[in-house]
Every structure is written in structure tokens, then in C-alpha cells.
Amino acid sequence: MYFEEFQIGTEYPLKPIQVSREDIIQFAEQYDPQKIHVDEEFAAEGPFGGLIASGYHTLAVVWSRWVQANVMGDESMGGPGLDTVQWLAPVRPGDTLYTTVTITETRRSNSKPRGIIRFRFEVQNQDGTSVMATEGAALMRLRPA
Known about the structure:
By secondary structure, the protein is α+β, with helices and mostly antiparallel strands. It has four helices and six strands.
């Protein structure tokens, strides 16, 4: 989609994703090898009472679903980053994550021929518990003249 096609308030529900025990351990072993993510016995005695996914794992799988949805398509020019990431509740083995991405702002760049969209991701598990929220921006191509 070109910049001009994005509208404030538009919501994009993403395809749900289930997070398995194996997914949690595999991701954590490579990217966030804290014991609460890789050692079930240790995690069982910890503050969450069991194995939990790394917050970065949650962010990665949700971002993957956003890219797979291809909303921004080839018109995306990358982004300046995320403004906030909030891990609100633990993601556990077997959880299914439901994500809605909402467009919160659109504006044309003052200095370059492109647009900027701002978005908010809200992620809930199968019980309706909010597990993550994040806000950021993307740079988008303008519709050709």
C-alpha cells in the first residue's frame, strides 16, 4: 500500500500464532538464554511458576505475522524504530497470540518525498489477557504521480 492509502483508525487483525514449548526454548537458546526461558525446572520455581517466552520472541513472531500480512508491501521503506514495547503478561507454552495493528497517525515528511505512518500493536492471548503492546513508525512510498 502506498502512504495515501493508510487511514487513521484502520485496524488490521493478524493471523493468530501459537507458541510452543519447543519454539520458546529454541528461540531463547539462540537469542535470550535466560533460565526462565530455557530451564523448565528453574522456571517452575521462579516468579512466573513455569517456562515463559522471551519478550523478544513475542515481538519477533508478531512482527513476522505483520510482514506476512503484506499490508505495507513493497512500498515500505523501513522505519525509524519502535517508540515503546511493553511486555504486559508472560507468554507461556501453548498460548495462542491474537494481534491487532491500528494505524494511529499518518503524515507526509517535510523534508523527503515519503510518508510516515505510525501504528500500535496490541497482542492478547487466548484468554483475552494483554501480553504485549508496542508502538512505532514506518516510512512509506508516495503514490507515483
